[in-house]
Amino acid sequence: MSANHYPAEIDQFDSQAAFWWDLQGPFKTLHQINPVRLKYITDHVTIDGQKVLDVGCGGGILSEALAASGAEVTGLDLSSASLQTAKLHLHESGQQVNYQQQSIEDFAAENPESQDVVCCLEMLEHVPDPDSIIDACLKALKPGGWLFLSTLNRTPKAMLLGIFAAEHILKIVPKGTHHFEQFIKPSELVKILNKKAVDIENISGMRYNPITETASLDAQDLDINYFVAIKKHEKS
Fold first, then answer.
1. Is 234 helix (H, G, I), strand (E, B) or coil?
2. What sections of the chain are H helices per DSSP?
3. What is the pLDDT of residues 121-155, one digit of tens each?
4. What is the mean pLDDT of residues 3-16?
5. What is the per-residue pLDDT across 99-128, written as a single tens digit (0 to 9) for each?
6. 6, 30, 66, 134 - which has most CB atoms within 10 Å?
7. Which are the contacts of 178, defined by CB distance < 8 A and separation ≥ 6?
């Protein structure tokens, strides 16, 4: 198994795994932003009938939404407890997702150019080497396929709202979920992507209102959360 993870991060998600589908639990914010995440993806590509890989799928919140939209979904995660919750929830939802406890690096090595779409949302800020994750995502992607990334910007505003307020004041995110030094500036992510055989099609921010518990896309506001839509080059 790839060593590109922090064991403490896996332990953190293992400890919360039973609550993935509790709409008022520690992952409720993910449920609230999930329609916006799905919309961002489907605004760029039709996923019905496509093979879609959800990297860092956790308890399956995005995976199930992708499956419900007609995609053939594989979900990868290193947290065995989260995957157990994800698999159990399929019995309730009736969706079909192929969940695997495997790193994206290992999956890509075994299944190169196998996916039409790869999603890696809210994960890059949890690993030691985000560049390796992106390389593996692109390796798993068919030529001309789409990669969707989202992460947190390393700004004072993200620290104040994404960590201090979210984890300690509002308590809408479990304490210890995020570490400021692991956040990634859009300019840093663009610099990484510019070295690869891809086109950056879009970068957009996401606003979250903790009062109304709703999220929305904002192309101008990248200060906290942001998405990137990337298209892999066709083979020449």
1. coil
2. 7-16, 28-44, 61-68, 80-93, 104-110, 130-140, 156-158, 186-193
3. 999 988 989 999 999 999 999 999 999 999 988 87
4. 76
5. 999 999 999 999 999 999 999 999 998 898
6. 66
7. 125, 152, 162, 163, 166, 167
In sequence order, what are the residues at sequence separation of 6 or more whose Cβ sits closer than 8 angstroms to the Cβ of residue 195? none
DSSP three-state, residue 118: strand
Contact 84, 38 (CB under 8 A): no
Pull the structure tokens for residue 164: 């201090």
- Summary count for the chain: helices (H), strands (E): 8, 8
Beta-carbon contacts of 191 under 8 Å, excluding residues fewer than 6 positions away, are none
| DSSP string for 20-35 | TT-TTSTTHHHHHHHH
**Residues in the chain, how many?**
236
Strand duo 51-55 + 115-121: pairing:
parallel
8 A C-beta contact, residue 214 and residue 32: yes
